[in-house]
Amino acid sequence: MKSSRGARRSLRRCDARVIAAREYKLIVEGELSDELSPTFEGMALTREGGNTMLVGRVRDQAELQALLRRVSDLGLTLLTATTTDEHGLD
User: Fold this and answer.
1) What is the pTM of this model?
2) Does residue 1 form part of some domain?
3) DSSP letters along 15-53, please?
4) Would you state the pLDDT for residue 13?
5) Is residue 45 part of a domain?
6) How far apart are CA 60 and CA 4, in angstroms?
7) Which of 37, 43, 46, 85 is most buried by its number of CB atoms within 10 A?
8) How many structural domains are present in the chain?
């Protein structure tokens, strides 16, 4: 088991790492109305097969976590969350 000092060192290394923006695709269960579009600003909203796909550029992990929190706060079921690009966008 790591000491707390070792764990803190690990966290610092992760925090210092630069994470490039990436394009993400989130699929949620159900077909969301256009009224919810502003809630997911910057994401394109499309409906297909009874589900809703949100696609857009996400700057960093904090923005991704905020999107996932919105999905949860609205009581939506997240089916998938994936990147659509191979590398970060510049």
Assistant:
1) 0.73
2) no
3) HHS---BEEEEEEEES---GGGGGGGTT-EEEEETTEEE
4) 53
5) yes
6) 27
7) 43
8) 1
